[in-house]
Every structure is written in C-alpha cells, then in structure tokens.
Amino acid sequence: MSGRHPSRPWGWPRRLVHLGLILAALVFLMLFLVLPLATVFVEAFRQGVSPYVASIQQPEALSAIRLTLLVAVIAVPLNVVFGVAAAWAMARFDFPGKALLGAFIDLPFSVSPVISGLVYVLLFGAQGWFGPWLDAHGVKIIFAVPGLVLATIFITLPFVARELIPLMQSQGSEEEEAARVLGASGWQMFFRVTLPNIRWGLLYGVLLCNARAMGEFGAVSVVSGHIRGLTTTMPLEVEMRYNEYDYVGAFAVASLLALLALLTLGIKTLLEWRYGDELAHAPGGH
Amino acid sequence: MTLELSHLDRRFAGFRALDDVSLSIAPGEFLALLGPSGSGKTTLLRILAGLDYPDGGGVRMGGEDFLATPARERRIGMVFQHYALFRHLTVTENVAFGLRVRPWRSRPSRAEIRERVERLLRRVQLEGLGGRYPTQLSGGQRQRVALARALAVEPDLLLLDEPFGALDAQVRVTLRRWLRELHEELELTTVFVTHDQEEALELADRIAVMNNGRIEQVGTPEVIYQQPATPFVCEFIGKVNRFRVRRHGAGFGVGGWMPEDDPWQRDVTEAVAYVRPEQLWLAVPPSQPAWEARLRHIYLAGSVAHLELHVASLDQPLEADVASEDLSRLGLQPGMALRVAPRSAVLFPLDGNSVPRSEERWLWHAPSPVPARV
C-alpha cells in the first residue's frame, strides 16, 4: 500500500469486493480450464507410464501424428501465402467487391465446420459434382489425404488474413511508398519493409492457424472416412479410441494434442509480450 | 533540366483532384505548392514522385516523357508528411536504404555506403544517433533523418510533403531556415507542399497557389502577396479586409472612399475590394476623402498591433495592422475616432451573378502625397 495517496479511501468492504472478484475468477478458471486439462493427463497416466508409452507407439497413433503434422505442414504455408496476399489487397487497394472478399474471408468462421466438410463431399465425393470425373482419372480426394488438406485449408483460411488486415491498415502504406521512391523493386519493398513490419502479427496468425489445423475435428471428420492408419488425424484417433472404450489410449493421444496446444500457447504468450511491446513503441499518426 | 507539367488532370471517384494544371519548374528553384487541404497539391507531388499517375496531360523533362520513367529511375528524393521512416531499421540503415536496394552493378561498396551515410548524418546534425530507432527520436530529428535518407540517393529533384507540419513552432522556424540554406548549398530543385502561407512566403523562390485542383496563380512571394491574381489568392494569403464597392455616377466608391480612374469605364456597376490590414492609412487629413471609423480594440502581438475598427458607413469591422511602436506615437486608444482610408487595394468587378471576374483585376494605389507609412 506504500505510495498510495493517504486520502484515497481503501476500507475493508472495498478490499473484500476485490478479493471476492479475484476468487470468483480463479474458481471459474479452475473449474472450466485447468481441471479438464489436468483430467486429460491424469486419465492418460491412470495405469502408469508404460501403458501410456505403449498406446502412443501403436502404429495407428504414430500414423495419426504423422498425418496431423503433414496436413498442418501443407495447410499452414498455403494459408500464409493466401493470408498475406488477401491482407495486402484489403489493406492497400480499393476495388469492386472488396467488402465481398472480406465477407468470404470470414466465411469459415461463420459456417459450421461440419457443413464445410460436407461441401467438399458434395463437390468431390463419389456422388458429387466432380466425383465421377475424378474417379475416372484415378484421383481420390474424399476419404483420402487431399480431402483432409482441403478441409483444413478451408477451416484455417481466416486466421492469417484476419490478423494482418487491421495491422496493415493501421500501419498505412507510407513506408512502402518511401521504399518505392528510394528505388526499391516490388520484391525488395516486400521483403525489406512490408514483411519486417508485419512479422509479429504474421507469426501470431501462423500460430493460431497451426493450432486450429492440428486440432480441427468437425470438417476433417466428414471428409476423412475414418480409415485407421490412413486418414485419421489425431483428433479423429482420440474419438475412435474413446468410442472403443480405450480410455488410456484416447487420453494419451489427447495429451499429445494438449501439449501441442500448450506449446503454441506458450509461444503465443511470448510473442504477445514482445509484439505488444513493439506496438506500444510504434510511432503514431499513421 | 526544366520540368514541364502540362494540362494535368486527376480524378478520384467523382472528385477532381487536379484540373488542367500546367506549370514549369526551373532547375535549382525552390517552389512551393500552397493551398488548403483538398486543393490537389499533394496529388501533384505524388505524380512527380511516381506514386500516382494523372488521367490526362503530361510531364516532360528535357524533351523526355517523365511519367514513363519508373519511380526508381527518376532521381527523386522525397520527404513524406509523417516522414515514413522504416520503423524496424536504425537511423543508419534508414539513410542507407536507397543505396542498398540498388542493383549490384550500381551499388556502392559497403565502405562507401557507410562513409556516405556518416557524411549525411553530419550534414543533418545527427552524428552519433545512427544506432537509434525512429521511435527513439524527437520529431525534428525524425524529419532530418527523412531528409538525409532522401538526399542519400543524390536526387536531382527533392520533394517535400508538408515538411514542417508535425513540428512545434520553434523547431519549425529553425528547420525552415536550415532547409533553405541546404537547398542553396546542394543546388537541388526543390518542390514542397504546404498549407502554411507564411512558410511558403518565407522559403520559396516561387509559389504556386492551388485551389480546387487548379493553379490560381504562380509567382514570386512578392507578386503573390502584393498582386494577387484572384479573390481566392487575396483571401488565402495573409489577412485581408473585404468589402463591396458600387458605382456612383462617374466613379466607384463606398462610404466616402472613392478610388479614382477605374479602368472598367461604365460596364461594371459593382466590384469586390480587398485591402491588407497594413495598407490602411489611419490618420487621413480632413482635406482627403476617408471613412469615419471608431477604434474598438487593440490586440498587441509582439512587434505588430492588430486594431479592430468599426466603420459605420461600411457597416462592417475592418482590421488594421500597425507597428507596436506607432501605438503611442499616434496616441491610439480604444474608443477613439479615426479617419481611415486604404493606401492600396485589389478590386475585382462582379458580373450579373455577383461572381468576381479575375481577368479584369484592378490594382489600385493611392496617388502620392499619401505618405508611405501611416
């Protein structure tokens, strides 16, 4: 309490209200966030370490991990390219249909993931629009890896763009114009001015995009076909094991997903700290 | 080489930013584009910089099409309104940017770049601050970094967009003088945009006054101030008293004041007159026609005093400026009666719809025995 002005009222009732509010928030956090997360790990290790390790080393589990990483490795970079391009277009240019593009970028957020998956089945499935043609040419999309990748790209499409649009709008294009007048080519301008200015926002968007790409269930579930060892990603593997009453196995895979999420959260917090600092020092007036 | 701008047009969604603008910029001159916001001055600057293109008209330099030259080959240095320093680069890296992005054939060596940047930082009085980031600098320092960065590419043409707009008054005046000296030393052609008439009058060799996308008048500060070509220039540059005059028999006049020998003969029945506050003569002898005025207020502003007069026969207030020292010499007191008449005026005839006709401007001066001061 040192440094507080002596005339500021600071009685017991006031302090009680503060304590009460803090306690309420803590209890809520424990009940709805920490407890479920802890349960995942408790259940995973309920029968000890070796059953946990064994269930993770099963071929299906390993293949699910590989597939999840593969899908993320394809979907995230593609959405980075799309996100940067879309954000650039939205922030720097006025064109007819700009509002429409903005709405389309948000579409995956507003549509239920199951519907998104279903759309791909209707397009590329055996009875879908392009199904027979694809089948005739021996291309398999639905119930195969390409379908999983497509659904994931669709679901994670808004993350990078939505992160960058407000950032680029607030930064304005003056620095880019300065680079042009100083003789920079388009690429030099992008890599030396644009990219460094949006790097933290971009990384933040990539992390969110990646977290969703690895954790997506609904859309992926529809297009996967649940072929064990071939088209099951980690979230699908968790569900299948749980339905087969293999609780340790389900929670073991779930714990890996939770770890990935915690890792992402950790990096995100680190970046926010760093990024928030940069934003606070950014010059105003743009 | 002279830069010839001819008949430039630029439209933005139904708004004419530039409307048939023609202007020639001589090598080595310091030209101000002066006008209120939305008058098209920044658009004109951006076209010269290659950041925007006109919808019609052209720009030629030494017979070559300047607009067809890509921005990076125009040999231009530009200082942006908010400086647009690269926030993720240090001062040194900012200044070196224009040299580092050159294709390797024309890029100076690392040592040469370092040497040149140091020389520039010395020139803009920022030596020792090369390692700082833009956010760690004051407004005036940022402005000088922006200038050093623009000069690093050794431009032929320096473009400045409201270069002093974001600075406080004292820094502004210092930097203004310093920029003028720099311009003379480097023998650059400089074009700067401003809405501050005082800045333009003090700095520029020539001023182009812009309004609604058109150039109203181009001329030296003296001509712009003393012989304004249009009512807009009269009102935008400096302070001015404005009133109507009407034909009375043989001559023009209002409330007892009659400028003699109007050039319009009998065609014009009404005109609008502009008189600068310092062109009001406050102690007219009774032998000469004048307005009977009452001194309402005296606002002392340092070396100058602004007087608020009320002239009953005009039914409007007038503002007069005198040197502060003249207040006591003339024994001026609020409430006293004065005989007041213009020493000079700019008049524009009004057509049937009360629209002034700029092309028939009349620069009137009181015939001598009127003393030059007071």
Structure commentary:
The complex is a heterodimer of chains A (286) and B (374). Chain A is built from 12 helices and no strands. Chain A has 286 residues and is mainly α. In chain A, helix 3 packs parallel to helix 7. Chain B is an alpha+beta fold and 374 residues long. Chain B folds into 2 domains: 228 residues, P-loop containing nucleotide triphosphate hydrolases (Rossmann fold, 3-Layer(aba) Sandwich), CATH 3.40.50; 127 residues, Beta Barrel (OB fold (Dihydrolipoamide Acetyltransferase, E2P)). Chain B is 24% helix and 33% strand. Chain B contains 9 helices and 20 strands. In chain B, a hairpin with a 2-residue loop joins strand 15 and strand 16. In chain B, helix 2 crosses helix 3. The model of chain B has no long low-confidence stretch (mean pLDDT 88). The chains are: A mainly alpha (286), B alpha+beta (374). At the A-B interface, helix 8 and helix 9 of A face strand 6 of B.
Biggest sheet layout of chain B: 6 strands, mixed
Report the β-strand fraction of chain A as a percent range. under 5%
The major β-sheet of chain A equals: none
Proportion of β residues of chain B? Answer: 25-35%
Query: What form of chain A results from the Cα inertia axes?
Result: flat
Unreliable runs of chain B: none
Mean pLDDT of chain B: 88
Order of strands across the main sheet of chain B: 6-7-8-3-9-10
User: Count the strands of chain A?
Assistant: 0
CATH class of the largest domain in chain B: Alpha Beta
Spans of chain A with pLDDT under 50 lasting ≥5 residues? 280-286
User: What would CATH call the homologous superfamily of the largest domain in chain B?
Assistant: P-loop containing nucleotide triphosphate hydrolases
- CATH topology type of the largest domain in chain B: Rossmann fold
Oligomer: heterodimer
